[in-house]
Amino acid sequence: MRALILSVSTGGGHGKAAEAIRESILLNEPDSEVTIIDTIKYISPFLDKLVVGTYLKSIRHYPSFFKYLYKHSDEDGRFIKSSTIGNDYITKQLYPTIMEFDPDIIVATHAFTAQVLSILRKKFGWQKPSLVVMTDYASHAFWVHRNVDAYVVSNEDMVRELVLRGRNPEMIFPYGIPVSQDFLKRRPKEEICKELNLNPQTKTLTIVGGSLGIGNIIEIIEEVMNLSSDFQALVLTGSNSKLYDKVTDLSKDCQRCILPLHYYDKMNDILSITDLLITKPGGLTITESFITGTPMAIYTAIPGHEVQNADYLFRHHLAVDLGTGENCGSIIENILQNEVELENLKTRSRANGKPEAAQNIYNLARRLISEKNDSHLGELAEL
User: Fold this and answer.
1) What is the pLDDT of residue 383?
2) What's the CA gap between 251 and 257, in Å, rounded?
3) Which of 267, 286, 291, 360 stands the most exposed, by the fewest C-beta atoms within 10 Å?
4) pLDDT grade, residue 82 (50/70/90)?
5) What single string gives the DSSP state of each residue in 159-181?
6) What is the pLDDT of residues 109-124, one digit of tens each?
7) In this predicted model, which residue has the larger pLDDT, 237 or 70?
8) Among 1.25.40.20, 1.10.1040.50, 3.40.50.2000, 3.40.190.10, what is the CATH number of 2-179+356-382?
9) Which of 187, 174, 162 is CA-nearest to residue 354?
10) Is 202 exposed, middle or buried (0-12, 13-18, 19+ CB in 10 A)?
11) Same CATH topology for 2-179+356-382 and 182-351?
12) Burial bucket for residue 26 (CB in 10 Å: 0-12, 13-18, 19+)
């Protein structure tokens, strides 16, 4: 199989989903050629810095403005036309690369590149299969376009959402968000704790601020430092070096074990030893937690897609709401002391896991390719 996967690095989840799809294709067909393109950066590093930088700056410093953009672009299509102009340019610049690579299928794991797939068919006559893999737990107009062959969504609720947006239910597949094959493996808890200098007999909190390390993490740490329950805490600070330094300083004055980590490439290990994950509701983090059966407590959702993700979790009783994270100590204390509720959260979380998502996406890609080839052969036979 020759597969081209188009992503954009506005967060860690889109790229990880793309990597999981590539991994699955190569696992099934080792001789395949699979290329992942960080689309805007590939076209223009300057444009990438402008677009992605503006996005990251808006969610970090101007969340109300981002909320306005997200809401109105979804409700009345405002701003969609301007994005189409940009994506027309991106598609035009990308088209020679696509023609040279000549993929059997093109997959999009970002809303921007979902529109690129539609433009490819509408304006450039690209007829080979196209597949959009949505990486959140609710839909948005930026993801949903005509001239796309199939959509993979994270949950059954989204099937109804996309049907309301005019998509045929037969082209929507609730397979889940794909994750690395590592999440299907398990290592002994004692082994992982030994590597991290943790006590396997003590409850472990893991506090995460996404790949950017944003949110009221310091306030949350200050809250948990005053808990009466016995615990140890891992704090994943992502790319936020200032946060890492602050957490390191706090840990020096704390009688508890608080371990800051810039990044840990075995997130499946971290989640498998975590008794409570305190996190922003990013799509991939939610998915990984479901697969490992890790209880979640949610704070400071980014306006827009993360708020919708949080709504999904709360609607299905899959996470505890910490609000902004301020004054959350008593909520966390109650969870840690309530073994029955912790076990219920684990059970509900695991029940929502879709560990076969990547394999199912491969199967769907292979089916789309076969159907398109059969259709082409049928057209030739009629000539």
Assistant:
1) 43
2) 7
3) 360
4) low
5) HHHHHHTT--GGGEE-------G
6) 998 899 999 999 988 9
7) 237
8) 3.40.50.2000
9) 174
10) middle
11) yes
12) middle
- pLDDT grade, residue 47 (50/70/90)? confident
* Residue 364 backbone zone (phi > 0: left; psi -120 to 50: alpha; other: beta): alpha
Give the 3-state secondary structure of residue 17.
Answer: helix
For 286-309, write each residue's pLDDT tens digit.
999 999 999 999 997 777 788 899
**Mean of pLDDT values over 72-94:** 68
CA 139 to CA 262: how far, in whole Å?
31
DSSP 191-235: HHHHHHT--TTS-EEEEE-TTTT-SSHHHHHHHHTT-SS--EEEE
Name residue 343's amino acid.
E
Domain ranges of the chain: 2-179+356-382, 182-351
**Per-residue pLDDT at 57 exceeds 70:** no
Compare 251 and 338 and report the one with higher pLDDT: 338
Structure tokens at 241: 């070096």
User: Mutual orientation of helices 283-292 and 12-28 as an angle, nearest 10°?
Assistant: 50
pLDDT (tens digit per residue) in 178-193: 999 988 888 999 999 9
Instruction: Domain 182-351: give its CATH superfamily.
Output: Glycogen Phosphorylase B; (3.40.50.2000)
Strands 172-173 and 150-152, how do they pair?
parallel
